[in-house]
Write a structure and sequence with these properties.
Blueprint: E1 2-11, E2 14-24, E3 28-33, H1 40-47, E4 55-60, H2 71-74, E5 75-78, H3 90-100, H4 106-115, H5 130-142, E6 148-152, H6 160-175, E7 179-184, H7 187-193, E8 196-201, E9 204-210, H8 211-218, E10 221-226, H9 232-244, E11 248-251, E12 257-260, H10 264-273, E13 280-285, H11 288-296
Parallel strand pairs: 3-7, 3-8, 5-6, 6-7
Antiparallel strand pairs: 1-2, 1-4, 8-9, 10-12, 10-13, 11-12
This protein binds adenosine-5'-triphosphate.
Adenosine-5'-triphosphate (ATP) binds at residues 11, 14, 16, 34, 36-42.
């Protein structure tokens, strides 16, 4: 198990990680998520003794990494796939690492096989693609057959087949009872890989919970409704009834309606009342990606703006301005697609985990601007 308590790291006046407390349990894949610059790599480096915490502690199996007996046999990590001598072949790179850690040389061929690099084992790694480099980094992490594994963005540069392979590998390693801690930006990937999530923003803990609970607590449910095709009047009648009853209705390109703010039985009742037949009425949840975006929106360090093009003339427009997602509701259609979020719609629902607030413990480090739920609106 990995255990962090009050973990803090400052670089000069920059606080990269602030007061992080969490546990990473064995037998599970724990996803470590956060926007760019959130502090994921810094945290992983502190776990591995590569950075010294400014405050707090982090241990693996009760020991700080540097105190761990025979650490390379207990902990394997992929931090930076480029951290290798490009002039060496994949095999000799791994052989060097094995020798340094007292690992038998035959293990090198085993891990090359596991990551699918046997055929290029004699080639210099500087000619490797990003994906091959990632595979070599994963091979190095597996060398000591460790019980604890840390992977920083392991699917970076991998093609879909490679991504699936990493996913299966992580699941298999956790299934063998190992502790697997993996950072990623890809929520969709984590949804399929992780059992548990630790989410940070601006170095602070924002969520620590099972994937399923994360989705349930952070996603706004919605109903998808379909009225008989070609019966526009029926559809308009239903939209009016739903919006008058407090629902928000969005037309989807496939002809269905996305309804929020009303329970399914209520939608059914209203449809019955206005005599509209339904071809579909189904419950849905926002994806993990949507929940994550909403949670971390206020803690993003890097934001893009629309390209103003310095007054340059834009490319020619299609004659009718291109496709715009229609907005259904009473009144004239609004420009720009979806209407603005309503109060309580798109914001974290009641009961959602409250992100780490202002510090309670006096501290030398300057906390980063605390995340405020209103930032996400
Ligand atoms: N050695 C360093 N010196 C100064 N600042 C640093 C150092 N290492 C990290 N930082 C800063 O700390 C913050 C956290 O960086 P970190 O790399 O841990 O984030 P991350 O979540 O891993 O980001 P990414 O997903 O983009 O890799 C960033 O603002 C970064 O610029």
């Amino acid at each position: 198990m990995i255990e962090a308590t009050g973990l803090t790291k400052s670089f000069g006046s920059k606080t990269a990680v602030y007061n992080l407390t969490f546990r990473v349990q064995p037998g599970k894949v724990t996803g470590f998520l956060g926007p760019n610059g959130a502090g994921k790599s810094t945290t992983m480096r502190m776990i591995l003794g590569l950075d010294t915490p400014s405050n707090g502690t982090v241990t693996i199996g009760g020991y700080q990494y540097r105190q761990l007996p025979n650490a390379p046999r207990q902990v394997g990590a992929l931090l930076d796939a480029n951290a290798k001598h490009g002039g060496r072949s994949a095999r000799s790179h791994l052989l060097c690492l094995a020798q340094l850690s007292g690992i038998p040389a035959r293990r090198v061929d085993e891990v090359l096989d596991v990551v699918g690099l046997t055929q290029v084992a004699g080639k210099r790694s500087k000619g490797f693609s990003l994906g091959m480099g990632q595979r070599l980094g994963i091979a190095a992490a597996l060398l000591g057959d460790p019980q604890v594994l840390l992977f920083d963005e392991p699917v970076n540069g991998l093609d879909p087949e490679g991504i699936r392979w990493v996913r299966e590998l992580m699941r298999r390693l956790a299934g063998e009872g190992r502790t697997v801690f993996v950072s990623s930006h890809l929520m969709s990937e984590m949804a399929q890989t992780a059992d548990h999530l630790i989410v940070i923003g601006r170095g602070q803990l924002m969520a620590d919970l099972p994937v399923r609970a994360f989705i349930e607590q952070n996603s706004t449910g919605f109903a998808r409704v379909r009225t008989p095709d070609g019966e526009e009047e029926q559809r308009e009648t239903l939209v009016r009834a739903l919006t008058e009853d407090g629902g928000q209705v969005l037309a989807e390109p496939e002809g269905t309606l996305k309804v929020t703010g009303l329970e399914l039985p209520r939608i059914s009742e209203l449809a019955h009342r206005v005599d509209v037949r339904l071809w579909e009425l189904s419950p849905h949840h926002a994806s993990l990606e949507e929940a994550y975006m909403r949670m971390t929106q206020g803690a993003v360090d890097f934001r893009s703006t629309a390209d103003q093009r310095a007054g340059l003339q834009g490319p020619p427009q299609p004659p009718y301005g291109g496709y715009q997602e229609p907005v259904v509701g009473i009144g004239p259609p609004q420009p720009g697609g979806y209407p603005p979020p309503q109060p309580g719609w798109g914001a974290p629902p009641p009961g959602a985990p409250v992100p780490a607030g202002p510090p309670v413990v006096p501290h030398q480090a300057t906390p980063p601007a605390p995340y405020r739920p209103e930032d996400a609106r």
